[in-house]
Write a structure and sequence with these properties.
Blueprint (H helix, E strand, L loop, with lengths): L7 E13 L6 E4 L4 E7 L3 E9 L7 H5 L3 E9 L4 E10 L6 E12 L4 E7 L2 E4 L3 H6 L1 E2 L6 E2 L12 E2 L6 E2 L5 E6 L4 E6 L13 E2 L2 E2 L3 E8 L9 E3 L5 E14 L5 H6 L6 H16 L17 E9 L9 E2 L4 E5 L16 E4 L5 E7 L2 E8 L7 E2 L4 E3 L4 E9 L7 E6 L36 H5 L6 E3 L5 H4 L4 E2 L1 E4 L2 E3 L1 E9 L6 E14 L1 E5 L9 E2 L3 E3 L13 E8 L6 E9 L8 E10 L8
Parallel strand pairs: 21-29, 31-35
Antiparallel strand pairs: 1-2, 1-7, 3-4, 4-5, 5-6, 6-20, 7-18, 7-19, 8-9, 8-14, 10-11, 11-12, 13-16, 14-15, 15-20, 17-18, 21-22, 21-25, 23-24, 23-26, 26-27, 26-28, 30-42, 32-42, 33-34, 35-41, 36-39, 36-40, 36-42, 37-38, 37-41
């Protein structure tokens, strides 16, 4: 199809893994197969296998360091414009402990051909070249570079950082690169994220300068050690990663000039890649992989039901859990799915009435979880669910009673696991990515220092009833830049009025969308109290502030506030983020709500 077009550099397509045994240094290993075999070969399909296994007696550092058996497979189908890739990772009993921070496939394309990158409909652009980063000005960390003398002068003065192009798993179904001359596209299509860890909101790298395209199967990005894959001594394990489809398309009816006039989501190669993605999604789970470890559709199960929300302080009758994310993952407490890394997860977006149908579930024992937009907290079904081949389980109506102790006195934000509704500032004009001037502004570089610009003399003060969280609540509670590389902890204030103070216990519900080496201390009406009235303690290592995420991992805290700490009339809650060792330490609030003492339930 592509003639003699050179798509890759030699030796620039590979699988790699980051990890090691606990007593050895965390290391990067490129996976190299020791055994090759043809699994299937006929007129319609070829499947190849490349295997390697742990050998503690090997002289090769990788072979003796990583106790894994890996079988990498490639499939080509007749009439298909591309190839499929998947792998079976396995650990045997009695093998030593292991941690894994990253598993991925890397494709580095021809630099002279691929200049246009697309990771979504509204996130596409001409990209700098690798040499432009080498000649640019390094910024606060190696991934971020200011382009000072790029090959394309139109990019002068922009910041390049691969984390600006991350995607949530639920949105990362197709991404890739376009060559204008000749008009060729290279795309990674991920029809399902069932084999990816951390659930639908986990963020991951997609594509970046190189030109590089990634298929990420496991990483600690936007989660840190909380999403690291860890195995104990003697812990067996097996998992199939993929298949993903590496799709190539071309349109020789358009020339270079035509391509440049159709940049953006209207580009014909991008539109064709999306059509192919939809076709792959509809075909999932595939029926052609030869490995017996890949479960075909007729050996999978189905579960259906309707999720309702019961919050008597909002509405007397249960409400539909409209557009909830409902999923199956390994058994654990509510919300544990976002830190689960070893098993499979199956998620669906419920409809407006909370109805859900999850198909293609591999056999096993799961918990059923849900996250409902606009509703605080995490849901878990009362009992585990056993999926058997061909089963069809109907749960009927199930009810989520979200965390609540009393009526709402005031609230800030939207309970949606994100800080996107809060105020995101304009970037420093010296550190701009023009793709994000009007949309997704949180992806701009250096926003952590914009807080000091907006609040040069005193910290943020928010007055309930007068302030607007969309304009007056900075999206990230960060430290103050006082110069010379020094940062000072900041205390934010929430001022509010209680006209009629009732005896009893009030509740402050605090949901965090992200936490990066932080601690939030809460003091009520006494900013100088030696000890805080409450604290989150040290929380989080998701690094979302530095990596331009509008969320990382979700945290929920419920703090009791006795009425003896409050005043009839004006009150102030002081939020001190007191970990100031780094400019990237801080939290993003998802939602804050003050509840009054419990009131008698309606009858």
């Amino acid at each position: 199809m592509c003639g003699k077009i050179v798509l890759f550099f030699k030796n620039k397509k590979y699988w790699d893994i980051v990890g090691n045994q606990p007593d050895l240094k965390n290391s990067f290993f490129r996976i190299e197969a020791l055994n090759f075999s043809v699994v299937m070969q006929n007129e319609t399909q070829v499947e190849l296998s490349f295997c390697t296994t742990w050998d503690p007696n090997s002289e090769d550092y990788y072979s003796k360091s990583v106790p894994l058996k890996i079988d990498i497979r490639y499939i080509m189908l007749s009439g298909s414009s591309g190839f499929y890739a998947y792998a079976i990772f396995e650990r045997e009993e009695k093998w030593p402990a292991l941690y894994v921070d990253q598993i991925r496939i890397v494709f580095k394309l021809a630099m002279k051909k691929f200049h246009y990158m697309a990771v979504s409909d509204n996130r596409q652009r001409i990209m700098p070249e690798a040499q432009d980063r080498a000649t640019g000005q390094p910024l606060d960390y190696p991934e971020a570079v200011l382009l000072t003398n790029p090959t394309n002068p139109d990019l002068t003065g922009e910041v390049d950082d691969k984390y600006q192009y991350s995607n949530e798993y639920k949105d990362d179904k197709v991404h890739g690169w376009i060559s204008f001359d000749p008009p060729v596209g290279f795309w990674i299509i991920t029809p399902s994220y069932e084999f990816r860890p951390g659930g639908p909101f986990k963020q991951e790298l997609a594509a970046h300068v190189g030109p590089t395209a990634l298929s990420m199967f496991e990483s600690d990005h936007y989660g840190g050690v909380d999403v690291r894959m860890e195995f104990k001594d003697g812990e067996p394990w097996k998992k199939v990663f993929g298949p993903v489809f590496l799709y190539l398309n071309s349109n020789f009816s358009i020339n270079d000039s035509t391509s440049n006039t159709t940049l953006g989501h209207g580009h014909p190669l991008w539109q064709d890649a999306k059509r192919q993605m939809l076709s792959e999604v509809q075909s999932w789970p595939y029926n052609f992989p030869c490995s017996p470890d890949y479960i075909s559709n007729n050996h999978r199960g189905t579960i259906t039901g309707q999720l309702l929300v019961n919050d008597s302080y909002v509405r007397e009758d249960p409400m539909f859990a409209s557009f909830a994310y409902v999923g199956l993952a390994a058994p654990g407490p509510a919300g544990s799915w976002q830190r689960e890394t070893k098993g499979y997860q199956f998620w669906i977006n419920a409809d407006e009435e909370g109805l859900f149908l999850i198909t293609g579930i591999t056999p096993g024992i799961y918990s059923l979880y849900a996250s409902v937009p606009g509703v605080l907290g995490d849901y878990k079904y009362e009992s585990d669910v056993t999926i058997t081949p061909g089963c069809e389980i109907d749960l009927g109506s199930i009810v989520f009673t979200p965390p609540r102790n009393g009526p709402t006195l005031w609230e800030m934000g939207l309970p949606d696991r994100s800080a996107a509704e809060f105020y995101v500032p304009d970037p420093d004009p010296c550190f701009v990515n023009h793709l994000y001037l009007t949309k997704d502004r949180f992806r701009q570089y250096g926003l952590w220092d914009r807080y000091t610009v907006l609040y040069p003399n005193e910290d943020l003060i928010y007055t309930v009833g007068a302030s607007d969280y969309r304009k007056d609540w900075f999206f990230a509670h960060v430290n103050r830049n006082v110069g010379n590389g020094t940062y000072r902890a900041t205390t934010w204030q929430i001022k509010f009025e209680i006209p009629d103070l009732l005896p009893g216990t009030y509740t402050l519900q605090m949901a965090l969308a992200s936490a990066s080496r932080a601690e939030v201390q809460i003091r009520v009406n006494d900013p100088f109290a030696k000890l805080p009235h409450h604290t989150t303690k040290f929380v989080g290592k998701d690094n979302a502030i530095a990596r331009h995420g509008i969320h990382g991992l979700y945290w929920l805290f419920s703090f009791e506030v006795p009425s003896t700490l409050l005043l009839e009339g004006n009150n102030t809650i002081y939020l001190l983020q007191n970990r100031n060792q780094s400019k990237f330490s801080g939290v993003m609030y998802d939602y804050l709500r003050l509840e009054g003492p419990p009131t008698p339930k309606r009858t």
